[in-house]
Amino acid sequence: MAAVRISGPNAFSVADHVFVAKGPAPSQRKGQTFGFGKMVEADGTILDEVILLIMRAPHSYTGENTAEIQCHGGSMSSRRILRRVLEAGARLAEPGEFTKRAFLNGRMDLVQAEAVLDLIRARTDRAATAAVEQLEGNLSRRFDELYKSLIQVAAEIEAMLDFSEHELPESPLPDLAKRLVAVQQRIGSLLSTWEEGHVLREGVLVVIAGRANVGKSTLMNALLGHDRSIVSPIPGTTRDTIEEGLVLSGIPLKLVDTAGLRSTECAIEQEGIKRTRSKLDRADYYIYVIDASKELSEEDRETLAELKTDRCLVLLNKIDLGCHIKANQIPAAGLLETCLAQMTCIEDIKREFLKLLERNLPLDAPPHAVISERHRQLLVQADQDLAEALEMIGTTAEEQLVPAISCIRAAIERLGNVTGKEYHAELLDAVFSKFCVGK
Questions:
Q1: Farthest CA pair distance, the chain
Q2: pLDDT tens, 258-287?
Q3: What angle is formed at CA 144 by the lines to CA 108 and CA 183, rounded to 5 degrees?
Q4: Residues contacting 119, CB < 8 A, separation 6+
Q5: Of 165, 178, 206, 400, which sits most exposed with the smallest number of CB within 10 A?
Q6: How far apart are CA 145 and CA 82, in angstroms?
C-alpha cells in the first residue's frame, strides 16, 4: 500500500477533482470518515481503486483539512496518482512540511516534532520507545517547567525595580538566587541525558585500532557475523576505514575497522593511517587490539596514552602463542586476553564492551526521553546565562539587577527556542530540513 496525503485549505477541492465514488464528493463528506472509490484522470480514465480518508481541521495530523489517498503499492501507481493530484492544484510538500504545519498550528511543540524524526530514524526498540516518550510530551514538560520558573524569577526582579529606593521591601535576592541555582541543577540533570540521546540517535562510534596484523579485521568480521573486512596474514591489508552497523543489547554501534598503525613508505597506506588517527579523534569508544605474543611496542604505548582510558577496551590477542605483556602496562578501563583465530571469545568481548558502556549509560533503566545535540547547546548557553545572572545578584548592588534580568531573559529565550515558544525562520529550516518529504 502507498499513501498520498493532501493537506491545507484546498485539500478537499483537490480531492473532488481526482476521486470518484458513490455518495457525496470528498468536500461534502464528514470528517474522520473514509470511502472506497477510484482515482481518475481529467478525462475520466481510471488510475487506481483507492480508499480516501477525510480528516477535517483541527482533527488531523497537521491541524488542517486533510485528504489521504491510500492506493495499491508500487512506485508506478503512487507516482501516477501523485502526478494527478499535482495537476488538480496541489504542490509537492517540502521536507518535513506536514510536521512543520502541525507545529505552526499548535498540534505539537518543536521538541515533539523532533521526536517524529527520531521515531522514523530509530534503529532499536530502545530508541523508538525513547522517541515515543518525547512525542508524548514528557521531555517538553521538563523544559516548560524551567521556562516558567525563570519567567517568575525575572518578573519578581523586575517588580523590585518599580520600588523607589526608600520603598524597597526586605531583599528577596537570596531566595531568588536559590531558585536560579535550582533551575541550574535541573538543567544539569537534563544535560546528563545527552550522551544517551547521542547514542540512541547517532549510534556509538567504536573504532577498532592497533598495529598492523594484530587481528582487527578478524575481530570486525566476528562481531558482525559475516565477512566484511579482508583478512590476510600480509601486514597492511586494510588501507582504508571500513564501517558497518551493529546492534548490541539494544544499543546501535557504528563499528570502524582501520588501517594498522605502523611506519611505512607506502603513500596509500600512509593515507589510511592518517584516516585511522582521524577516526580515533572522533570515536566515542575504542577497541584496541595488541599482539600479546610480542613485547608492548612504543607505537602502542604512545597511542594508548592518547586515548580516553575510561572509553577503551584492550584485547591482548594471540595468547595461544604466549603472553609477553602484563596487565599493569595497559592504561585502559577494560582488558581481555583473546585468541581471535579460534573465535571462542566473541561473546566475552561483547560482554566486556557492554560493561564499558554501562559505566556511562543507564542501560538497565527503562527507555526515556533524552535531549538532542540542539537541546544540549541551548541548555549549555542558558546555564552560562544564569551563572552570569547569579554573579550579578550576588553583589547585592541594585544597579546590577538590570543586567542580571537581561541574562535571565536570554536564558528564557534559549529555553523558548528549545520547545518553539520562541522561534525564527532559520531555526525551523534547520529542524525540518532533516525530515523526509512524507513527514
A1: 87
A2: 877 766 667 766 677 778 778 888 889 999
A3: 155
A4: 128, 131, 132, 135
A5: 165
A6: 44
